[in-house]
Structure formats: C-alpha cells, structure tokens
Amino acid sequence: MLPAVSPVVVAERVTKWYGPRRAVADVSFSIAPGEIVGLLGPNGSGKSTIFRMLTGYLVPTSGRIAVAGHDVVEDSIGVRRAISYVPEDAPLYDHMRVGEFLHFMAGLKGLHGAKARAAVDEAAERLDLVRVMKLTAGKLSRGFRQRVSIAQALLGNPDVLVLDEPTSGLDPHQVIAVRDLIQSLAGRHTVLMASHILPEIEKIASRVMILLDGVLLTSDALKDAAPDFRLRLSADASLESIRAAADAVAGVHDIVAAADEGGRFLVAADRRPALAADLLSALVGAQIAVRELTELRPDLERVFLDLTRQPEAAA
Ligand SMILES: Nc1ncnc2c1ncn2[C@@H]1O[C@H](COP(=O)(O)OP(=O)(O)OP(=O)(O)O)[C@@H](O)[C@H]1O
C-alpha cells in the first residue's frame, strides 16, 4: 500500500545485476516521512545492494529510485544530502578522537565553522557522546562505535537514515540502547534498517519488508500477519458495558472477553493511529477503570516462514 503522504523514498521496478548474478529483482516500494521500516532478509538476499543503490553508491541496472525527490542517477549529490548510510561494521578512523572524527565528517558533508560546531554538538548531545569526545575511536566499545557512526550520519540533518544491521555484535545492554536510540529518531528522520534477525526488527520497525533472493516478498509483513489491529484491554467492567462504551468509536470491529481470566478483553479494530486514544477516552467517559490498553504485535515469524518457504507462490 502506498502511504497517504508524499513518500520520501520511492523505488520503482529496481533490478541490479552483478555481471551474470542478479542480486535485486524488480523491487518496488515507497517509504513515508518519519517511518521506521525494517528490511528483513537472510544473508545474501540483496539488502546491502538495495542500500547502496538508495544512497547513490551503485547504479541500478534498471528501474528508478528517488530520495526526497532527487533521482539517484540524475542527481546523486542531492541524494547524498538527503540520505545517510551507517554500514554494518561502523568503520571509524581508530587513531582519531571522536570529536575530531565528527568534525572531519561534518567537513565532508559541506559543514564548516560555526555550522559544523553546532551540528557536531547537537549530534554528540543526542547520541550521548559528550563524555567520549576526547577519546580515540580505537578505545571505544562496540556500542559506542555504533553511536559515533550514527552521530556522523545525523550531521547535516538528513531526511533518511539507512542502517545496515545496527545491533549486530552488540551485547544485550547495547542492543537495547541502540534500539531506543533508533526509535527516538522516528518522526524527525525516516529510518530504513536491515536485519536478518526477526525478533530484533520486530521490536524496532513500524513496518517490515521481507526480501529473499533479491525478490521483495512483502512490503508490509505486519499487515499481512494481521489485517486487523488488535489491542489487549484490561478493565474492571463487563463485556456489555465495554461494548456499549466502544460503540461510538469509529473503526472498532469487535470486542471479546479473553479466555484466561476475568477483566481482560481483546479488541479488533481498524489500523488507525488515534484508535487507542479514542477508545481510551470513550471508556474513561463511561466511567470504566482501564488498567491496560496495549497493541498486540502480529505473528511476524509465521508470515516470514510462510513467505520464505514458498517464494514462488508469494512472489
Ligand atoms: N560486488 C559484488 N559482485 C558480485 N556479486 C555481489 C557483489 N555484491 C554482492 N553480490 C552478491 O549479490 C547478492 C546480494 O548481496 P547483498 O550483499 O546485497 O546481500 P545482503 O542481504 O546484504 O547480505 P548480508 O546480510 O550478508 O550483507 C549475493 O548473492 C552476493 O553474493
């Protein structure tokens, strides 16, 4: 489905051949501003190739890609201003101090003097790097290297950030920190991130695309998993009174009592951003004490396995 607002990334029927090897086959998708989109696929499925084409480092064999309205082939300078790439291994100059490195990268992005200082200070603040600015990059932990790599990508305030396996090689604490960080970027930036780890991408992305052997099997696996939006509701009230209160909320399809225990219900509804808030205010308006109202994540694993087991049926 195409997003309602003007997309910031558009790929139309993109194919890439490396000599006789086809790495990406007829891939089309679009991404709306502020989305966090996950690109999930096993090793060798073509994720990095798509990223290199989006960022203007590789030219598609056929098809068209535009980022923030700039065509990747005709206006690669415009594209490079609008998009930043954080490769998997967070390459840094190990002998450089973090502050020095960020200033160096700001210069490469055309930022100088006061503008460069302001951009570096803001990125250091946002990525919590102020206390390591004087350390050389070689002394940093894997988690801090990843932060520095994301900080350099934020210099110049790009519309789109592309992150290749951003949590690979991190310990569990660092994974959580980087995950929170990526979620905090949503809204101000559009994020496209690759992973071959399903539970990881599921926790971060608001939309998941699945790639296998260069073929895009779905551009919204979460929606395929559950056409409806499902919420879990805990409240001190009867099913009848909850149904009566929710009657006035547009998009609520059904409410059933959960089998396990009293006071817990499942709500099926349209996937509408304000739905939970509307439902909550209707319940509160009806004097119903709500203990919990949370979105249930659909079973992405099942969709992934179905699609990747039968690519010819789904492609
Ligand atoms: N420069 C290249 N020359 C020839 N073949 C390549 C080149 N780069 C990638 N490939 C091949 O293209 C296919 C897609 O590779 P790509 O690196 O895009 O996949 P990926 O999903 O990013 O994998 P990974 O998760 O391992 O990084 C693979 O079969 C790979 O071997």
UniProtKB/TrEMBL annotation:
PROSITE patterns per the UniProt record, alphabetical: ABC_TRANSPORTER_2
Keyword Secreted (UniProt): no
Keywords: ATP-binding, Nucleotide-binding, Transport
Residue span, ABC transporter domain: 9-238
Keyword Nucleotide-binding in record: yes
Transmembrane segments: none
GO molecular function term, any single one: ATP binding
Protein family per UniProt: Belongs to the ABC transporter superfamily.
Job description of the protein: Involved in beta-(1-->2)glucan export. Transmembrane domains (TMD) form a pore in the inner membrane and the ATP-binding domain (NBD) is responsible for energy generation.
Protein name from the UniProt record: ABC transporter ATP-binding protein
Organism annotation: Bradyrhizobium zhanjiangense
